[in-house]
Design a protein that fits this description.
With about 325 residues, the protein is an all-alpha fold. The chain has one domain: Orthogonal Bundle (Tetracycline Repressor, domain 2), CATH 1.10.357. It is built from 17 helices and no strands. It has helices spanning about 5-10, 20-25, 30-35, 40-60, 75-100, 110-115, 120-140, 145-160, 170-175, 180-190, 195-215, 220-225, 230-235, 240-260, 265-285, 290-295, 300-315. The longest helix has 30 residues, at about 75-100. The protein is globular and about 55 Å long.
């Protein structure tokens, strides 16, 4: 059996098994890249989009950006690298907390910690290195953005344990994954304002939607091992709740744009986002893991549509 075949066989079922990370990474680095989900970029995108939305939307408030309202490219690059690193750090924290549970679930038992390819001690050292890189990036931001970044660490640590106590761990994930909306706005303006808060709120409902879809992949295993999720709570009522989650998302995004004084093209973009959400709900097959994963990943496109809508709204 070749090394590549070994890697493929040791990868979780939802890993991009033939991706560039798998093909190009050296042998010693592969378990650590898997641990930080470098081979699964969707998580980084879902963490990054709220940051980019806020940076783009805040440019409409910045005198320095007038009359072009172009988002700060340097800030976007910083947040992109930060999202990649800190999403990886969050995955390490999550896997350390869940390694015993992951060993019992077919989709996750191939992960580096439950499979024994990385020890808990090695994971802790790797986590420290990722956090150090994240700190260097954080210190390039405004004072308020730095403090917000420090505060986010509490959410990162708390989230992995919520599924043991509540059927709504996706709320904590939403609070965590969309924190960049506050940080991105603060990095541009040096303060917080209602558009950032509303964007953050809309992002939380967005996460409730897409991660409920994602959780349907694991609901049978979760029920057996005793962990909770919105998928187990909502079950066959999931489509109705998705309508509520995504409706609230669109309403809050519309209010954020209104408070920021953005133009009509932004609201046209929200129409496309609404259509995307309707497609997700109508296409959902809760007993089909591949379908759930495909719809979950499609939220990258939703994030892109909103970003383009913000840019277009500056001019039209």
């Amino acid at each position: 059996m070749t090394k590549m075949e070994n890697r493929i066989n040791s990868a979780p079922k939802d890993t991009e098994k033939q991706g560039w990370v798998n093909r190009l990474s050296p042998d010693f680095a592969w378990p650590y890249l898997q641990l930080m989900r470098a081979d699964r970029p969707i998580g980084t995108w879902l963490l990054l989009w709220p940051c980019l939305w806020a940076i783009a939307l805040a440019s409409h408030q910045s005198v320095l950006q007038w009359p072009f309202y172009l988002p700060d490219v340097f800030l976007m690059v910083l947040f992109a690298v930060g999202a990649f690193v800190m999403r990886g750090a969050g995955c390490v924290v999550n896997d350390l907390a869940d390694r015993n549970y992951d060993a019992l679930v077919d989709r996750t038992r191939g992960r580096p910690l439950p499979s024994g390819r990385v020890t808990a001690g090695q994971a802790m050292i790797f986590l420290g290195a990722l956090c150090l890189i994240g700190l260097v990036i954080l210190l390039q931001l405004s004072a308020l953005a730095i403090w917000l970044g420090v505060m986010s660490l509490a959410l990162v640590v708390i989230y992995p344990f919520m599924k043991r106590f509540t059927y709504w761990p996706q709320i904590m994930l939403g609070l965590t994954f969309n924190w960049g909306a506050l940080m991105g706005w603060a990095a541009v303006t040096g303060e917080l304002a209602w558009p950032a808060v509303l964007l953050y709120g809309g992002g939380i409902f967005w996460t409730l939607g897409y991660d409920t879809i994602y959780a349907h992949q694991d609901k049978e295993d979760d029920a057996l091992i005793g962990v909770k999720s919105t998928a187990l709570k909502l079950m066959d009522h999931t489509p109705k709740w998705l309508i509520f989650f995504y409706s609230m998302m669109v309403v809050l995004f519309a209010l954020a744009g209104n408070m920021a004084g953005i133009g009509m093209a932004y609201y046209v973009g929200l129409g496309f986002i609404t259509g995307h959400c309707i497609w997700q709900i109508k296409s959902l097959k809760m007993e089909d893991s591949d379908n759930c994963l495909r719809l979950f990943k499609s939220n990258h496109h939703l994030g892109l549509i909103l970003f383009i809508s913000i840019l277009a709204g500056h001019y039209i």
